[in-house]
Amino acid sequence: MTSSPRTDVVVVGSGFGGAIAAYHLAAGGAKVEVLERGPWLRGTDFDHDYLLGKSYTRVFDFVAGDGMSLLGGNCVGGGSVVYFAALPRAPRFAFERHGSIGRRMWPAAISRDTLDPWYDRVSRVIPVRTQDWSEVTYSGGLWAAACDHAGRTANPVPVGIDAAKCTNCNWMMAGCRFDAKRSLLMNYLPGALAHGATIRPLHEVQKITRTDDGGYRVHYNEVDEVDYRVHTGGGTIDAKIVVLAAGAGATPIILRRSEPELGAMPEAVGRYFSGNGERLNTAVINEDRVREVLGLDRGDGIAYAANQIGKGPVVASWDRLDENLPEYSRFSLEQLYFPPGLGTILAQAATAGGPAWFGVEKKEMLSRWRSWLTIFQMTEDDNEGVFGPPPPTGNAYRISQQMLGRGPLRYDPTPNTLRGWAAADAEVRDILERDGLATVLPWTNDVVGAYTVHPLSSCRIGDDPATSALDDRHELRGHPGIFVTDGAAVPGALTVNPALTIAALAERAMPGIVAAARARGVDVRYGAPLPDDAASSPVTAR
Amino acid sequence: MEAFADTIIPGQKRSPDDRAIAGAAEGGGAVAAGALELLRTPATGITAGLGPLAAALNAHAETYAAERGLDLDTDVPAFVALPFEHRSALVAALTTPGHPEKDGWVLLALFSNMAYDSAAHMSTADALDQGHPGLLSMGFAKPDGDGLWRFPRYSYGRVLARPHPSTTASGSPR
To answer: Which listed site, A137, A438, A446, B69, has its alpha carbon 20 to 30 Å from A504?
Structure first.
């Protein structure tokens, strides 16, 4: 064996799962190396620009699979840099779901009640707050008013946004230029760095092998900072503990690629993938009806025409998050902004021949883009996604120099999932087509399959070794010392935005991971105070 | 390639004898928005495939026309010779789930659309300054003088719905 650099812990990925692990392990005294495949950008690096090569494509990945496309972060800070900072807790029933396995999917040790203290911790760090109506954007307000008109309720969503800094520019997916979004660049990551952790951007982990002394060797490629299809080098780092948090679209691929040398993986690695049951509907709003029926006016005679204004999702309707309803029929409906570039092609126009995603009527629909209102549905899907053989490197065959790739995920929605989508579509139609407020159609699933911005469950926790890859301590079954703390660990769809749940699970896993590190001879203790939540500027690359 | 892009987001003819653009819609479409410039941008990863895709598209157009007994002009490529409604039907078939070449045609459609809805081949602020037909038609707002977008007026500023009765203290569902 050639000699390889050594550390106590390698963390793969710097999103919620990785950043939280890096902070607690470093703060507890462990030597921590974070390997992040994406670049390291800071506030002023985040561009308001759709030009290929700007931050919008540098920090964001779109991986098309067979029947499912994944959207996610690709940068230091991971999903937290590109997400919309909606941070609700999952409803109680989400933890009680059986899914398709005929028994509770979640470990017995975890319920909403037992996770609430961990939710509390993350909520203090970010910090998470509930918006008041004066912060609710025109689009959120329109959705709220439409829900109210239809006899439904609507809630301002808990968020991790500094309202004083937010300009309502709606460029969140390219990273926040104004430091208003409380991404991990402002809390856990600077905390980890302050305690001596190292973050290596543009280091894409390919596989894990064993070392002679019972530890692990992490193999990475270095990625060109402009053309991600190009590798500029590579290497290995040895560690006593590996925390995998590459995201639900990459963690199982790294493990499957490692299998020939590491040994058999649990059956659930790369199976049970959930897209969080996600789906989008686009409503084209009738401005006159919105004024007449809902009494909305921006103060300048315009009723709405405000699709471009705002900060992602601000209002959600939770009427169907009812534990008394049968599984697969529960969902939340959240107003959302999805930027152009990817956010219009799948929207469908109504034509005489049926819905159309291209052509004359679609162009006419685009001319009314300011009057679009996009509704995001998070339903209960059936964990039907399965990853095929890993690509040669990374988690996809990269097509474009940045952003676009083709991945090995296969997703064929079951009747349960399709019923849930149909029920959510019908509910959106009932609310928004009432009294001629709008014309609504779902995005097509025929172009890039279904799609999710919240990939989950591809390497999940559970009590049953046959249907979960991890035990309830997030340790990979049969491979002691390897832990998974990202969205892959979440057992199934949550019916709400999952970021806070992923983070709370990572916080909950930390005492056990620290204990495992101690047992492997790492001088580390659990119990560091939470990172300073008053960071006002994001961490910068050194 | 122009005819394909024009099928995704149609536009008006550049001149009376324009054949690539079918003239199915008023105002600039994907071609006027810069679809070809974007497709020829190496960063897309599709540039090297444009020649083979164009050849394949014409072969599909010839097959399509033959199956339907359509006579095609031979002085332009076969896909260009197809009337607009037939171009649309062929593109729909090529991008339908299960078509063996679907991925390539979807990519072509994606970038054709992207040229129009986000001018991904040029700086967004420049595109707006230069009267980019897609962004202008969509009503995409102009940035402030420093090239950044801000919307100081963004809220109706009043309560517009009742929150769910089971909302917890943290503002989340029960």
So the answer is: A137
Res A542: pLDDT = 37
Residues 6+ apart with CB under 8 A from A269: A252, A255, A256, A458, A459, A469, A476
Closest-CA residue of A relative to B160 is: A145
CB proximity list for A40: less than 8 A, separation 6 or greater? A75, A76, A199, A201, A541
Distance (Å, rounded) from C-alpha A444 to C-alpha A279?
A: 9
> Using 50, 70 and 90 to split pLDDT, how confident is the model at B157?
very high
Q: Quote the CA–CA distance of B37 and A1 in Å, as a whole number.
A: 50
| A231: DSSP letter | E
Contact present, A411 and A384 (Cβ < 8 Å): yes
Q: Answer whether A148 sits within 8 Å of B160, measured CB to CB.
A: yes
Rounded Cα distance between A244 and A218, Å, is: 11
Question: CB B139 to CB A48 under 8 A?
Answer: no
Give yes or no for a contact between A183 and A55, defined as CB atoms under 8 angstroms apart.
no
SS3 per residue for B84-124: HHHHHHHHHHHCCCCCCCHHHHHHHHHHHHHHHHCCCCCCH
Angle of helix A16-27 versus helix A499-519 axis, rounded to 10? 40
Residue A410 is given by DSSP the state E
CA distance A490 to A16: 13
Question: For B23, which residue in chain A has the nearest alpha carbon?
Answer: A360
B contacts of A130 (beta carbons < 8 Å): 170-171
Tell me whether strands A60-66 and A404-410 are parallel, antiparallel or unpaired. parallel
* Inter-chain CB proximity A298 and B153 less than 8 Å: yes
pLDDT tens digits, B36-95: 999 999 999 999 999 999 999 999 999 999 999 999 999 999 999 999 999 999 999 999
How crowded is residue B59: how many other Cβ atoms within 10 Å of its Cβ?
12
Instruction: Give the global pTM.
Output: 0.97
**pLDDT value of position A534:** 42
**Cα dihedral A313/A329/A410/A463 (nearest 10):** 100
Show Cβ contacts of residue A72 under 8 Å, excluding neighbours closer than 6 positions: A60, A61, A63, A78, A79, A82, A247, A249, A453, A455
Q: In this structure, what token pair is assigned to residue A536?
A: 């006002």
pLDDT tens-digit map of A486-499: 999 999 999 999 99
Neighbours of B129 (CB within 10 A): 11
Contact B40, B50 (CB under 8 A): yes
